[in-house]
Amino acid sequence: MNASIQSINMPKWGMSMSEGKLVKWLVSEGDAIKPGQEIMEVETDKITNVVEAQDAGILRRRVAAEDETLPVGALLAVLADASVADSEIDQYVDANRVVAVDADGETSLISKIQVDGRTVNIMDSGGESDKAFLLIHGFGGDLNNWLFNFEELAKHERTIAIDLPGHGQSSKDVGDGAAVNLIAAVDGVIDALGLKAVHFVGHSMGGMVAALAVIGRPAVAGSLTLLAPAGFTTPVNEAYLASFIAADDRKEMKRVLSDLFAEPSVVTRDMVNDVLQYKRIDGVNAALGLLASNALKAPEAGGLAAQLSGLGCPVRIFWGAEDKVIPPPQSDAVYAAFDISVIDGKGHMLHMEAASDLNAAILQQLATD
Amino acid sequence: MQLSKEQLKLAYQRMRQIRVFEDRLHLEFTRGQIPGFVHLYAGQEASAVGVCMHLTDQDTISSTHRGHGHCIAKGCDIDGMMLEIYGRKEGLCGGKGGSMHIADLSKGMLGANGIVGGGPPLICGAALAAKTLGTGAVAVCFTGDGGSNQGTTLEALNLASVWKLPAVFVFENNGYAESTASHWSVSSKQIVKRADAFGMPGARVDGHDFFAVWEAVREAVERARAGEGPSLIEATTNRYYGHFEGDAQTYRAPGEVEKVKAEKDCLVHFRKRVTEAGLLSTADLDAIDGEVATQIDQAIEKALAGTLPTVADLTTDVYVRY
Amino acid sequence: MPKKTFKQAITEAHFLEMRRDPRVIVMGEDVAGGQGASGEADAWGGSEGATKGLYTEFGPSRVLDTPLTESAFIGAAVGAATQGLRPVADLMFFDFIGVCFDQLYNQAAKFRYMFGGKAVTPVVVRAMIGAGFRAAAQHSQCLYPIVTHIPGLKVVIPSNPYDAKGLLIQAIRDDDPVIFLEHKLLYGVTGEVPDDSYTVPFGEANVLREGKDVTIVALGLMVQVAMDAAKELDTLGIKATVIDPRTTSPLDLETIVESVEETGHLVIVDESSPRCNIATDIAAQVADQAFHALRGPIKMVTPPHTPVPFSPVLEDLYIPRAEHVVTAVQATVPAKKKGN
């Protein structure tokens, strides 16, 4: 097999994805492709996203057709140099068209850790390494929010995503709702897994939790990557929190979730259903209410920036220019003091909306060790 | 005799209220003021009051299509009842139930019931709730000779006995199910004979005699409250009016009702008994008669002045949430 | 997420709600089983074993076996509901509704309205529905249209384990009388069911898949039939939306109408007898509200207007199948080229 032939396959975005539909080709056969270039749009029952090229080459074959639904791993396109013969491409397509998928593969990555009587659910790519990425989702989210990031990061380093208390499959008990309850869960996971060098990645409220965890125990912090962190300079949009908690039907939930994205059409019916199913678990709305009125309203939740300056580990911060939930900071002084990238045309869910840029940036943090 | 003077006054007042309430409805119905079906309880007052004098608001009763007497005996608001019968918004059920469905759960009145035999299973449930929640309450089912032949009633008697529920089943045998005589329709002739078949004690009392009813029910209620299970009471009574208002009652022999009124009227009997025993004076009783007459007059006036429900009321109260 | 059977989901909902709320009681014929007999207590745990274990944990005051006396115990459940308990009564086969119907439609359903909004009757009546058990005409019917017809009752027909648990918990917490109907052939079906307590609200249809060519509405066991048909239709180039209303009262007509406005075609799959059933009801309401959106006739896939037959050969012919749904869709959606 010619080593210069590269495939583009149906990605696996999150645990429940078993197949995806190719919505639209964004390139034509014969186009010269650069790494990171958007190749096609793929729709799952949860979300629509673009598939980007990992490698450079000529797009020699569009194997899948628009509107076609294919299993995870299925061959979608073939890249190769111009020097590779068409017959070799045909052979490659014939040999690689069919894929076998381990449907339950990721389920085995899920485990539960007991911390102070609370169950903390995590997804751990595994291994013995005491160095790892630790991904912490935001308010109302869960570890599946990292569906476009987890696999990519895990290719390079042990990666652990956590369900914070009150979220996902973790206990719904958040104590009095103060941040310390969430930080305790994060610390508990770090201790239980014996991690020594943690590259924290936190989104929104999870950013605040990651930052406070690092401040609390700088010794384990390898780096800190914050995506639209809560409380950095301003508190979270209270109206958003209130409407997220209050929403109890699909229409209202969809409206609320649309505020998370620069492009509201990415909010699918299934994404709405998933959030509603979560909110309809006993104790969830109460937990969210406590977090909204305590963790996210604490004095430190308005001025994390001040506490973060002078930390020993590298800190990188990303913001979507169109973030409606926590808009980017306005003060020039903050931009002078921190490494902040504001990404045009993206909203609050940067790790989903700008996944490949973010993944690349997060991986760079490994180089700082 | 263990009834205090105040209790005797209350018993007489309630019986009198029922009588005047029903007599007045009979009159007003002929004037075309009252919509729908009305089934009057006049003549049977001693039964309802003799039973309910043992009950508090925590105890539950179920009633029948002939339910006004049970409502008054259980302490339902008379103005609210009259407003309901006239279909007014201020009625006990907002004008949505009417004569056949007057209820006030805050008084333990689980509703008059348009379905003969509808109440007995429900009263098993009320008794079960009292037993499970340990409230010490009892549940009393009023039904009649007609209801005694319903499968639901027989099932309820069996279940109450099997579950040993704090329930009392009161069969007011007024001699007729609609136009059909009970000595023809009730195979056992006496309903009380059925008690034995369901493994519970039974008593047959003269339903015109407040004191006889009161005494029999005292025992049944004590038994129920003590956790010893259900009892059956058959009270033989007579209704002074037809099955419903407008019933020409051609199935009754000429003079039948007049004879009962002359010989067995419960109010007359009560007055005689308490005055002869020196428990209450004629003046006491006359005073109550006067008050009740005024009260019912006023209830009619209030009912006529009540508000009619509007289209907005049509679709509310179907569900708690839909 | 843990996988559980439909029956386990039902059992779990009972346990969780009985632990949460001491007012919740369970009653019915054989809900524990063996009452008064000399053998094992909790011998059956319900005719299908769905309430097994409740008696052991909650005891005879909260798990009540009854004589064979549907009128009395359904009525007792209704009466108890008015007096502060939250009973779950197991009627076993819904075909038995005939011997207790008065207590449901004249009593439970009417109290709130007749009593001017002052009564609250939080009773749940569980029962099995559906053909496919070789149980013949008196143990196989889908009689939910009869109760859907009655104002004051709510009617729930779960089609999968997740919904079964969430809808049953909602039913037990609901302040109105709820008829909760379980298709016998679903008990063994597995699906993801969280361990936590959660609710699924009434009157919110589940959209199982979205396609632009036709809207298929199906209930209970028929949801899987509709999904199978939708897969088959995919190969014919017809993309189907499949909607499971989950509750027939309240009915989420809005979701159905919105979908029909997009697809222009409606097929309803209903296992109940064809006259005055849920299919005819939805068809009529969609025609009334969204006739402008329809680009073809509304098609209904139902059994024939016969009792449910016994012989397996006949019963299999009786129950709607995916191929019937495909044919019905093809009768309203114009033929398409593959991949269109």
Automatic annotation (TrEMBL), chain A:
Name of the protein: Pyruvate dehydrogenase E2 component (Dihydrolipoamide acetyltransferase)
Record's keyword terms, sorted: Lipoyl, Pyruvate, Transferase
Entries under InterPro entries matching the protein: 2-oxoA_DH_lipoyl-BS, AB_hydrolase_1, AB_hydrolase_fold, Biotin_lipoyl, Single_hybrid_motif
MF-aspect GO terms: transferase activity
Origin superkingdom: Bacteria
Pfam families documented for this protein: Abhydrolase_1, Biotin_lipoyl
Stretches assigned to the Lipoyl-binding domain: 5-80
PANTHER family named among the record's database cross-references: ALPHA/BETA-HYDROLASES SUPERFAMILY PROTEIN, LIPASE-RELATED
Cofactor names: (R)-lipoate
Keyword Iron among record annotations: no
UniProtKB/TrEMBL annotation, chain B:
Catalysed transformations (reactions): N(6)-[(R)-lipoyl]-L-lysyl-[protein] + pyruvate + H(+) = N(6)-[(R)-S(8)-acetyldihydrolipoyl]-L-lysyl-[protein] + CO2
GO biological process, any: pyruvate decarboxylation to acetyl-CoA
Molecular function per GO: pyruvate dehydrogenase (acetyl-transferring) activity
Lineage: superkingdom: Bacteria
Keywords: Oxidoreductase, Pyruvate, Thiamine pyrophosphate
Cofactor(s) this protein requires: thiamine diphosphate
Residues of the Dehydrogenase E1 component domain: 14-305
Chain ranges passing through the membrane: none
Record SUPFAM superfamilies: Thiamin diphosphate-binding fold (THDP-binding) (SSF52518)
InterPro entries: DH_E1, PDH_E1_Alpha_Subunit, THDP-binding
Coiled coil: none
PANTHER family named in the record: PYRUVATE DEHYDROGENASE E1 COMPONENT SUBUNIT ALPHA (PTHR11516:SF60), PYRUVATE DEHYDROGENASE E1 COMPONENT, ALPHA SUBUNIT BACTERIAL AND ORGANELLAR (PTHR11516)
Function (record text): The pyruvate dehydrogenase complex catalyzes the overall conversion of pyruvate to acetyl-CoA and CO(2). It contains multiple copies of three enzymatic components: pyruvate dehydrogenase (E1), dihydrolipoamide acetyltransferase (E2) and lipoamide dehydrogenase (E3).
Record-given protein name: Pyruvate dehydrogenase E1 component alpha subunit
Taxonomic source organism: Dongia mobilis
Automatic annotation (TrEMBL), chain C:
SUPFAM superfamilies (alphabetical): Thiamin diphosphate-binding fold (THDP-binding), TK C-terminal domain-like
Alphabetical UniProt keywords: Oxidoreductase, Pyruvate
Domain Transketolase-like pyrimidine-binding positions: 4-189
Record carries keyword Heme: no
Top-rank taxon: Bacteria
Entry keyword Oxidoreductase: yes
Gene Ontology MF annotations: oxidoreductase activity
Protein's UniProt name: Pyruvate dehydrogenase E1 component beta subunit
